[in-house]
Write a structure and sequence with these properties.
single chain; 284 residues; 12 helices
Length: 284
């Protein structure tokens, strides 16, 4: 034992669940670590925090996959030599699927499907199929409805799609687990349409990417953490600051890449607005 001030709290059969609980304790500023013992794992915490630790564990045991624990693992997660006997691919797959719901995974998969098509020689075909309308008309909306959402699924580079889809998986998955698939679907549809339309009005139809929707889920989680912290959805202030700073950099034209500034801003605003509406609706 590395720290004599630690005392055993609870025995847990699964290493992944034990590490999730330890990471959550760390987010509460409680020193903790996980140790293997007789085929299971013992959670050790500060000896002077045993009573509090037991209360926290009782709550954790009721719903170990609550998004607030996943967020703690994301922010305070660590790896140790104890992980070596577990398949890294299997562990990643399990965590990936457990964190996300059907809406999160469907949008994630569609983005990657479109991107891979573009990488295998179909870039022009897919972009021309999904790009926003060259001009708005009722006939266009009826005849080619996919163009209303289409730009959100098309990405121009590996960095572009990795950045967008991982943010979508992390935050969209947390929203879906907390509020359900209909809330996330509504958030996706509203933010994609609003951000696509806004970007079209500013710069025309030559744009693409999930960035407007990503800013919407950022805004939703940000405002939910402020309006209804009991839901367990929150973003660290440095990350919020970074996303807002990136938004401002785009508008002052200091970035080395083309940025869909209108889509980002309108996505953020729509996400904040839907957080306000959803938290009034779901507040207990």
């Amino acid at each position: 034992m590395e720290n004599s001030a630690l005392a055993p709290l609870v025995k847990i059969d699964q290493q992944r669940i034990g590490q999730l609980f330890v990471d959550y304790l760390k987010s509460l500023e409680i020193t903790a670590q996980l140790e293997p013992q007789d085929g299971a794992y013992i959670v050790y915490i500060q000896a002077d925090k045993l009573d509090l630790g037991q209360q926290v564990f009782n709550e954790f045991a009721q719903q170990p996959y609550n998004p607030k624990y996943q967020h703690a693992a994301w922010q305070h997660g660590s790896t140790s030599s104890n992980d070596t006997h577990i398949s890294g691919v299997s562990e990643f797959k399990t965590r990936f699927l457990e964190h996300a719901g059907v809406v999160t995974l469907s949008v994630f998969a569609l983005c990657w499907f479109v991107f891979l098509l573009s990488q295998f020689g179909y870039a022009n075909t897919t972009f021309n199929l999904l790009r926003f309308y060259s001009e708005l008309s009722f006939a266009g909306l009826v005849g080619e409805p996919q163009r209303l959402l289409g730009p959100a699924f098309f990405h121009f580079s590996w960095l572009h799609i990795v950045f967008n889809t991982m943010w979508w998986w992390q935050l969209g998955g947390a929203i879906e687990k907390t509020y359900g698939k209909f809330t996330l679907m509504n958030l996706f549809l509203v933010s994609a349409i609003v951000s696509n339309l806004g970007q079209f009005l500013v710069s025309g139809s030559n744009f693409g990417g999930l960035s407007g929707v990503v800013y919407a889920v950022v805004g939703f989680v940000w405002w939910t953490g402020w309006l209804n912290p009991a839901k367990g959805l929150m973003l660290p202030k440095p990350i919020i600051g970074f996303m807002l700073f990136w938004l401002v950099l785009g508008f002052v034209d200091l970035l080395p890449v083309n940025v869909a500034n209108a889509a980002h801003l309108l996505g953020l605003v729509s996400g904040c607005a839907l957080a306000l509406w959803s938290n009034k609706t779901f507040r207990q």
